Records
---
Amino acid sequence: MAEALVETTSDLASMVKGNPSQYVKLNVGGSLHYTTIGTLTKHDNMLRAMFSGRMEVLTDADGWILIDRNGKHFGSILNFLRDGQIPLPDTKRELLELQAEAKYYCIEELSCATENSLGKMGGEGPDLVPICRVPLITSEKEQQALITANQTKPVVKLLINRHNNKYSYTGASDDNLLKNIELFDKLSLRFSNRVLFIKDVIGSNEICCWSFYGHGKKIAEVCCTAIVYATDRKNTKVEFPEARIYEETLNNLLYENRTGPDQDLMQATSARGAVASYTSDDEDERNRLVGEGGLGPGGGGGGGAGGGVPRSHSSGLARLRSNKNS
């Protein structure tokens, strides 16, 4: 087995010492590249040593030469070997990454170039990456493209356009407009990783309106404007339904997964007002009436068929309460 491994390595070394125009296949940390032996041996660096037979190289079953490095900047390394210069990255982080690769491959010229570029940046801190991005849409087409591209991510849109008004605003309208904008900013910061927030400032139909989308479809809308009638004219009123906006935003989070919320649960909770239910005060009153005989069999309520609470059920509730209180 050891003899076979040595033979394979020897054959590969003789292959890479071939014609400079011969192409080789490189797998650098999963990033695949084709280049010539002439490019790799053009400058005096570690790659020349690897592909001139002075260093052992590893190959896989398909003949790809394996280099155990991050392949993110290897394309830039090859371009520098070909041309002698490349456009350097603009950010400090990428410059440091490229410099590390240049030092590993012993490419002194590229390492010095990155060092000079880093020196021009001075003592600036690390690159800042925004934690929240809010797209500003300018057309219905842009809006649809954003929503379609994020079907697995809930979307909240705020349409805000003060100039859509035909009438005068009421006294508190401007203040409420600002409150809606401030709430949108707060929510976008809080849920930036879970919800896509977009802002529309050219909508032609509304002044202030929230829209909520899940799986590419609109699931709710909260419009914050209304027309109010004064003595001699109409006025536009902008409201700030903060609780409703919070509620719809939290409901929107149910659409984070691919399956969405349980529709049976949504239907049951939305129709809960139509189901007869008793509060604790109602139950106390019924228990009292049952105890007095007002709702038992033959009483005014008709315990058997009149729709009242059965005595066994009422007594069971009473026992539960007594146990809880004790």
---
Amino acid sequence: MILRVVILEECSAFCTVMNPVPFPRCLWLQLFVVLLLGVFDLWFHRRPDFLFLTSPTSPDGTSESLKMWLAQRGFYVKWSQLLLPTLFATVWHTNYHSVNAEVVAAFVVPHGGVALDPSHTNFTNSTDQQLADALHENLMNLSQDVADQNPDIIFFSTPHGISDMDRFLIYLNEKAAGVTYADHCQSKNCAFNLNISLAANESLNLVHHLKKSHRVSGVSTFGPPAGSSSPRIRLTSDSADQSFDQTAIPLRWGEIIPLYFIPKNQNRKFIILSHPSRRYSHSESMIPELLHLGRSLYLRLSHLKERVAVIISADLAHTHQKDGPYGYSPSAQPFDDAVGTWLKTLDATSLLQTAAGYVNEALSCGYTGLVMLHGMLSEGGLKRWTPKLLINGHPTYFGMALASMKRS
């Protein structure tokens, strides 16, 4: 792989030329970067791998403002007075090598029980009933679409997994299993069980690489993580004369509903990343971090030998109805509309600015996953993806959308 690097130097001559014009210096630098990146994109048909912001002096307010502006657009930004040592260290750390496979597609999937099985929900009107049925049908169709991409590994992002207060967690068990239920039904007929195999070694390698520059760690339950020399734990059931493995890491609705209808899940493995619980109150401030993490994830996943698909488990605003558990907020519909625009166009402004302005009141569990996905898609070159929004609506108090992004 050819490593493409753009170096932006805050040259005094450039600033001197622009000084007569009454615009803030940072705006001129932003304009310069936009023009430079536009030329880069026309030449390479993609974004640079790294963007270095260099200066002969220590960073001032302009440098920091520019760095934040670029980070919000999904760039890996590195400021340094010593360009060549920093560049060498970054390239060495990234460990570039030939890409044998690729990230072939990404999907946004809700985890509301009404999409799993709407037949047990009493709707107040026929419009909501029809929307719920359409969500279920689109979930079935999208699940087949995931399988049609023939991924060897599915990278799965969940907002409702095992969470740390501060760090993103990657599951390190070899198996994952659990049960969830359709809305308004707790009988055995409404139980949906899922058992999947995790790409444990790949997950462990991912943790080792990401933890150096991100708030990422691994988690294992009921035993040692993959690659450990400790013995596996085996438990024997009293109700059957056989040994069975109870060391699977738990799954619940946030993982089972998006994955349940995908055909032949037993033929592929999964990497599961759970978002930290600070997302509940700091989604907007996490945007630069999420974009950076998404770009790093894409780089690592695209270096795997296997074909990879990405699934983001995400519901939208939870404040559409006054009698819902979170009440009503006028921010709910504008938030869902802005996310819908992004799902149709991948327009960064719709997700990173418009939706961000509503998320604190709209209360969306999926927003951080969507921003992380934007970082991933940006690293692959936004123009290389064809987005398709299948449906976006709220038959109950929370919004749900299904969408796909495929390499064009």
